[in-house]
Amino acid sequence: MATLCFFRFWLGFGIGGDYPLSATIMSEYANKRTRGAFIAAVFAMQGFGNLTGGIVAIIISAAFKSRFDAPAYKDDPAGSTVPQADYAWRIVLMFGAIPALLTYYWRMKMPETARYTALVAKNAKQAASDMTQVLNVEIVEEPEPAEELARREQFGLFSRQFAKRHGLHLLGTTACWFLLDIAFYSQNLFQKDIYTPVNWLPKADTMNALEEMFKISRAQTLVALCGTIPGYWFTVFFVDIIGRFIIQLGGFFFMTVFMLGLAIPYHHWTTPGHHIGFVVMYAFTFFFANFGPNSTTFIVPAEIFPARLRSTCHGISAAAGKAGAIIGSFGFLYAAQSTDPNKTDAGYPPGIGVRNSLFVLSGCIVAGFFFTFLVPESKGKSLEELSGENEHEEAETSAAADYRTAPAPPA
Question: Where does this protein reside within or beyond the cell (predicted)?
Answer without folding.
Answer: Membrane
